[in-house]
């Protein structure tokens, strides 16, 4: 019965099961470029790459107090994980661990003062990675707990959410779908301190987001504004999408990942259902050429820019969802394979045009912010590269790819994801962030 409904679903959304992981995933250029990027950040004071010039692919650097700062060090930790345990090479592993640690130091001052608001969750990634390797590293433990406290301090019990952006009128309480990604730091800090209030805050925020950001068809609003004194929704709008009622692709991807991650942390079925619904919508909206546009509802004329970063984030979200299906008891093997097939197709289709050997970034064709003046599109983006690396790690850990640099690496339909990857709790290194 499940098989039948899955076959129908697959027919509906029209993707084939023949896609294999892109050959570029484990190309030596990945480690080479990351190494160069990590060794070239400006120092005194340290600055971090966010996106590239659209003309020559050179990284543009920004001060540490910005939401994307953690991605380069986190990508170094991801390559540490890859070379430490997935594709063993101790020289490379040590090199990337050292780089991840070194690059994190510029983020430590942000615990005392940051203007990133809710994005402290993103800033916490490299410290969470460090704690997974060395629990006795007090600098990293303190960073995780402090970032979690900063996010918890932004919780308003009347609204039921953590505040995303600060506003001049404090009663105008703005929450963006991206905020789902920052909830993970609350679970990470709970694991270190035993403070369950942090989990309660994460669940309240996710419940409200489910109610007010996600539309009945599984699509999503970017921004929901609440009145902080009454808790009422006063506005639903976009900031980075095409229109207030459109679906900004990267926001939808954050939602797929965010709700799959809520299920991973809580085992509450409502989050699994929401992740499935948002993932189905995402897949159903990808055009037949496979290229993810920056907003699913943006008109075709003038030609709408792609957002390869949204495709990479959604890929990892779908792989997480696949692992959650596999972890059900009894294991939902057909559901797991459905999502991992979709993830591999999304990854392949979008790597095919965005892979950019001659640029400093791994990928091109990212859209940072198209409604900005001037629009910022057709760039490399550090988080696109980060989730590309993460996708490569996940596919190996799920047995769907191996470390050899070959386009003939094919998923093994006979061995779908197993329950061995259901929780990060027993690992000596971290595989999700
Ligand atoms: C890896 O793949 C790239 C093309 O994607 C190719 O240029 C390179 O020679 C390959 N390297 C190895 C070691 O197979
Ligand atoms: C291991 O990594 C080092 C450093 O990145 C590299 O020079 C070397 O070629 C790698 N060894 C193998 C067998 O891939
Ligand atoms: C401890 O963690 C910090 C921050 O993650 C890092 O910069 C530092 O190098 C680590 N220290 C050691 C001794 O590993
Ligand atoms: C748990 O975390 C919340 C939110 O940061 C804080 O208000 C509370 O004091 C903490 N409880 C303990 C026992 O530390
Ligand atoms: C929120 O509601 C209060 C009380 O009704 C009102 O004074 C305030 O202007 C409202 N704020 C916004 C942003 O609507
Ligand atoms: C958004 O609203 C406008 C105006 O009400 C409408 O024309 C358009 O079809 C709507 N778009 C979507 C994606 O619902
Ligand atoms: C298995 O996963 C698919 C896709 O998410 C879902 O439609 C189906 O209901 C799941 N089956 C079970 C038994 O949970
Ligand atoms: C990708 O970006 C390049 C410019 O860097 C552009 O020429 C090309 O059309 C873009 N491809 C897609 C599929 O959007
Ligand atoms: C992409 O960005 C360029 C440069 O800012 C801008 O001229 C162009 O209008 C943007 N493309 C679209 C379709 O918005
Ligand atoms: C790894 O990939 C290569 C190239 O596709 C293949 O020949 C080999 O059998 C694969 N190894 C495993 C363990 O799957």
TrEMBL record:
GO terms for molecular function: chondroitin hydrolase activity. Residues 1-18 form the signal peptide. The keyword Protein transport does not apply. Belongs to the glycosyl hydrolase 88 family. Residues 406-423 have a biased composition (Low complexity). It comes from the Eukaryota. GO terms for biological process: polysaccharide catabolic process. Transmembrane segments: none annotated. This is D-4,5 unsaturated-glucuronyl hydrolase-like protein. The lineage of its organism: Eukaryota, Fungi, Dikarya, Basidiomycota, Agaricomycotina. Keywords: Hydrolase, Signal. Residues 406-433 are annotated as: Disordered.
């Amino acid at each position: 019965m499940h098989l039948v409904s899955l076959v129908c679903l697959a027919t509906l959304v029209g993707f084939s099961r023949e896609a294999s992981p892109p050959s570029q995933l484990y190309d030596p250029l990945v480690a080479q470029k990351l190494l160069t990027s990590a060794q070239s950040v400006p120092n005194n004071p340290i600055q971090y790459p966010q996106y590239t010039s659209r003309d020559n692919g050179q990284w543009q650097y920004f001060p540490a107090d910005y939401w994307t700062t953690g991605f380069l060090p986190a990508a170094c930790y991801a390559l540490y994980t890859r070379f430490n345990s997935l594709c063993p090479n101790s020289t490379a592993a040590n090199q990337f661990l050292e780089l991840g640690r070194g690059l994190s130091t510029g983020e430590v001052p942000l615990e005392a003062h940051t203007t990133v608001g809710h994005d402290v969750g993103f800033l916490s990634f490299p410290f969470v990675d460090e704690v997974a390797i060395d629990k006795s590293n007090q600098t990293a433990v303190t960073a995780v707990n402090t970032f979690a406290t900063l996010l918890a301090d932004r919780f308003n019990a009347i609204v039921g959410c953590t505040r995303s952006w600060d506003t001049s009128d404090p009663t105008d309480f703005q929450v963006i779908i991206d905020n789902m990604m920052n909830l993970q730091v609350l679970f990470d800090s709970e694991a270190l301190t035993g403070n369950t209030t942090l989990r309660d805050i994460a669940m309240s925020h996710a419940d409200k987001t489910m109610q007010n950001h996600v539309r009945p068809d599984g699509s999503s609003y970017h921004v929901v504004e609440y009145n902080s004194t009454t808790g009422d929704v006063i506005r639903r709008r976009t900031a980075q999408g095409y229109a207030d009622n459109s679906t900004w692709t990267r926001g939808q991807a954050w939602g797929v990942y965010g709700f799959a991650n809520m299920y991973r942390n809580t085992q509450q079925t409502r989050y699994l259902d929401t992740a499935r619904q948002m993932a189905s919508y995402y897949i159903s909206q990808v055009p037949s050429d496979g290229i993810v546009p920056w907003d699913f509802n943006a008109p075709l004329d003038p030609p709408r820019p792609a957002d390869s970063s949204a495709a990479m984030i959604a890929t990892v979200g779908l792989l997480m969802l696949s692992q959650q299906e596999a972890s059900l008891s009894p294991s939902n093997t057909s559901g797991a394979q459905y999502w991992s097939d979709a993830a591999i197709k999304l990854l392949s289709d979008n790597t095919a045009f965005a892979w950019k050997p001659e640029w400093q970034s791994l990928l091109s064709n990212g859209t940072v912010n198209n409604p900005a003046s001037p629009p910022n599109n057709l760039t490399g983006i550090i988080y696109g590269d980060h989730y590309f690396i993460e996708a490569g790690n996940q596919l190996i850990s799920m047995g769907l790819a191996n470390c050899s640099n070959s386009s003939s690496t094919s998923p093994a339909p006979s061995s779908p994801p197993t329950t061995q990857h259901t929780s990060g709790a027993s690992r000596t290194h971290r595989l999700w962030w």
